[in-house]
Amino acid sequence: MLVLLAGIFVVHIATVIMLFVSTIANVWMVASSNLGPVSSGLWLLCNQTCEQLQVNSSDEPSLKAVQAFMILSIIFSVIALVMFIVQLFTLEKGKRFYITGAIMLVCWMCILIGVSIYTARFTGKMAALTRPHHGYCFILAWICFCFSFVIGILYLVLRKK
């Protein structure tokens, strides 16, 4: 049981770190231009230097929503990690980690909403550049989506023995 708890704890920490990286780094979309590689994230557009991401007025609410949901997912993931540690030492034997699991599933839902909005609204926005494709931050966000779902379900069914 201790090995299972330690494994879940390690995967949860890895998920938190990957959420931080995917939200902060600016490599959600990557393309090539005459001046070299261009990467776009949630905050900046980087070519040789980085500048604030310019979006048109119809896409700005979508970008703000993606930013907000990704930040919320980090917050809920950290809260779930703290709640897991608290419940690990305060729960009686045979009790389940319901609160931790519920918070982690809220994190899962925030990641789903944020990445889905980004996929729907910003995937084809770099069409003027050569060979646009998704960057590692976008992929990390989807990996965190999977991990947070699995962790949330495991917390809900996991009993402290």
From TrEMBL:
Cite the Gene3D superfamilies for this sequence. 1.20.140.150
Q: Which PROSITE patterns match?
A: PMP22_1 (PS01221), PMP22_2 (PS01222)
Residue ranges annotated as transmembrane are 7-31, 68-90, 97-118, 138-158
Where does it reside? Membrane
Q: Which UniProt keywords apply?
A: Glycoprotein, Membrane, Transmembrane, Transmembrane helix
Membrane topology reported for the UniProt record: Multi-pass membrane protein
Superkingdom field: Eukaryota
One cellular component (GO) term of this entry = plasma membrane
The record's section on InterPro entries has:
PMP-22/EMP/MP20-like, PMP22/EMP/MP20/Claudin, PMP22_EMP_MP20
Instruction: State the family it belongs to.
Output: Belongs to the PMP-22/EMP/MP20 family.
Q: Specify the protein name.
A: Epithelial membrane protein 1
Phylogenetic classification of the source organism: Eukaryota, Metazoa, Chordata, Craniata, Vertebrata
